[in-house]
Structure prediction request, 473 residues.
Amino acid sequence: MTLMIPFDNSYAHLPENFFSRQSPAPVASPELLAFNDALADELGLDAGTAQDRAEVFSGNRTPQGAAPLAQAYAGHQFGGFNPQLGDGRAILLGEVVDRNGQRRDIQIKGAGRTPYSRMGDGRAWMGPVLREYLLSEAMHAMGIPTTRALAAVATGEPVYRDAALPGAALTRVAASHIRVGTFQYFAARQDLDGLKALFDYTRARHFPQARTPQDVLEQAIERQAELVAGWMSVGFIHGVMNTDNTALSGETIDYGPAAFMDSYHPVTVYSSIDRNGRYSYDNQSRVIVWNMAQLAGALVPLMPDNDAAIADFTETVNAMPARIEAAWRRRFAAKIGIAGARDGDETLVNDLLALMAEAGADFTNTFRDLARGTARDHFPDAGGYERWHARWQERLASETDPNARMMAANPALIPRNHRVEAMIQAAVAGDMGPFHRLLSALSTPYDEPAPENRDLATPPQPHEEVRQTFCGT
Ligand code: AMP
Ligand code: MG
Prediction:
């Protein structure tokens, strides 16, 4: 049976300057590497044979009802504004309304050149494709909003980076692909009609209770505050928080050099291109405020009185750090077993983090071991930890069932960088076993790992450590 996708497209009906109509470029010999049956079911796909899926999700066959297009957007990349980015290697096939009534985008990343490709080849190689598949599915399993992975297909064609690498495409599913940079695109062009159309569309799709740009700004800020606090609570470093990689939906989007940290240090950076640490672990809570200030700026032209709007929006953006702080405190309090965070709990968390930074303690395992009662093993200076432990125990005396709370807030498993790299090497050599093993183990990150998966919880040996990650190009 051929694959059927119940498309119900809306973005394709926006004005023509929102996108370029573009079909995926065919590839030599597509082969399905991975397919997300549960997600396909959620989307109401009639999923077809493996060959059929490979044909559709490589872009070789455009399924009935698709309206393929590349979206236009702009964005600040590392603080510098680029008025014209757009999908340079991604093509939106269309949207479906899923079984829960949610509208979802289905997009192929690595589908060939588009009018926005600039110097790029429009392609992706297997490494970043499998990386994004695994990391986004792990993020979802951790309960943090994210785009999802529906399919990974090998193209059977080489992609030329530093060397010839096996090409692949990722089919990604998102609440939408509207970015802060999409608003900036129209604002920078002073295209007020476009900006209005985008605002109306975004409001209806993502913020149905909002009425004004001020409402949308506030709700978008709230979602991003929650998202970044969620990332920080699991040691996640996005790595390229450019405004074109900040989604209005509040989902994590664009896993390029993204990484989960092993040993804790607040200024950890993995991305090879982030030389100044703009997007370091700790800076994420500041950069997201900067990004939302760019959204605010792009919304100003929608307001009748620009000066009044600037004053109001500035106040809203200035209130964002306190929201992040609150979300962060709630998340990290739960990580040490506290339900209702109160004054002083922040200090308790920060004192533990300071000890962890000093010891270079493993972020994931230290928090997980708090509930297991073995956290002190992570601190060579047991005295410092013992003093903290005593204060902590005193605070926990007034909490009910802190252990269950900690187990639910502290994943036992994360996609560790060295495992991800080894998985990619195996896949390139034709062995998808490690990919499927990781994917399966990471689908229940808060459970105690099965005996055969305990090795996945082990931090890297010094020689296994991955110190740099690269953009998904
Ligand atoms: P990123 O920050 O990785 O999300 O990408 C920044 C911009 O570069 C986006 O407009 C991408 O579409 C574009 N881009 C990245 N890789 C390629 C590629 N291989 N070919 C064409 N465009 C690309
Ligand atoms: Mg991007």
Summary: DSSP finds 15 helices and twelve strands in the chain. The two ends are 34 Å apart (CA to CA). The longest helix spans residues 213-233.
